[in-house]
Design a protein that fits this description.
Shape: globular
Distance between the termini: 48 Å
Mean pLDDT: 83
Radius of gyration: 18 Å
Low-confidence stretches: none
Helix content: 25-40%
Strand content: under 5%
Number of helices: 4
Largest sheet: none
Order of helices and strands: HHHH
Oligomer: single chain
Length: about 100
């Protein structure tokens, strides 16, 4: 079925499908619009599982380091200042068994 006829066609349903997951940190309005406008060879793609297709959009962008985050969500910066700057984890982004 085309995305426009799926259970995720409305933005509210799309956002609710990812509420409470790590995917909620992504800019869901952007990804909803991107999937809505997506075309394959000039025709709207047909999928059985648009939820899985949306997750693939997120994963592909995350893999290519271009995931668009929601407004107000900042990207993780290893070595950036932390509230506990005295720990090695705060400086390097690496957590050992001794940091627990």
């Amino acid at each position: 079925m085309p995305f426009a006829e799926s259970e995720l066609a409305s933005y509210d349903d799309f956002a609710n499908a990812f509420a409470g997951t790590d995917y909620a940190l992504a800019d869901l309005r952007y990804y909803h619009a991107r999937i809505s406008a997506w075309r394959q060879k000039g025709h709207p793609p047909r999928r059985r599982d648009w939820h899985a297709t949306a997750i693939q959009f997120f994963l592909n962008d995350a893999h290519d380091n271009r995931l668009k985050l929601a407004p107000g969500v900042s990207a993780y910066q290893p070595g950036a200042a932390s509230t506990d700057a005295g720990t090695l984890f705060a400086r390097t982004g690496y957590r050992s068994k001794y940091d627990s």
